Design the sequence.
């Protein structure tokens, strides 16, 4: 990979951005339709406030919470014991409840080598590219691999 390549040259515009109040169901639908594995979560000014990945969605959906587990007080009374097996409706869960809040961002001048090292050390698949805190792009591990392939 060329030592002089920058994130600004490799990044893609943020195609799919989610809001914190987006439902988890809608987020999953948008990721699937966009054929992406994750998306930034932004506020009204376009500032990144989190990231949601397929892994977050799977982790959320695989939860085995029931009404009984969510509200233990119901299982204390014999008449309400059946509630312990009623699944919790997860359709109202918002992105804010499951997103990763730690933002890992870089600016356009970050080198591809620095970006790759950051992805590897943080064990993540995408970096948010920001200017004055506003999201302007995303660079992924696949973007960096494509750049490496192009340097034959």
Sequence:
């Amino acid at each position: 990979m060329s030592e002089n390549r920058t994130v600004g040259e490799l990044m893609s515009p943020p195609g799919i951005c989610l809001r914190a109040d987006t439902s988890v169901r809608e987020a999953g639908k948008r990721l699937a339709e966009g054929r992406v594995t994750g998306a930034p979560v932004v506020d009204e000014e376009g500032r990144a406030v989190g990231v949601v990945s397929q892994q977050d969605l799977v982790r959320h959906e695989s939860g085995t919470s029931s009404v009984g587990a969510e509200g233990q007080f119901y299982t204390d009374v014999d008449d309400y014991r059946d509630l312990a097996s009623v699944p919790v409706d997860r359709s109202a869960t918002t992105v804010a409840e499951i997103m990763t809040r730690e933002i890992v961002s870089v600016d356009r001048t970050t080198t591809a080598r620095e970006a790759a090292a950051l992805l590897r050390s943080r064990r993540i698949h995408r970096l948010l590219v920001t200017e004055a805190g506003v999201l302007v792009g995303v660079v992924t591990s696949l973007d960096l691999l494509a750049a490496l392939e192009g340097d034959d």
Q: What stands out?
A: Confidence is low (pLDDT under 50) at residues 65-75. Residues 107 and 129 are 5 Å apart (CA to CA). The longest strand covers residues 134-140. The chain has one domain: 7-61+95-149.
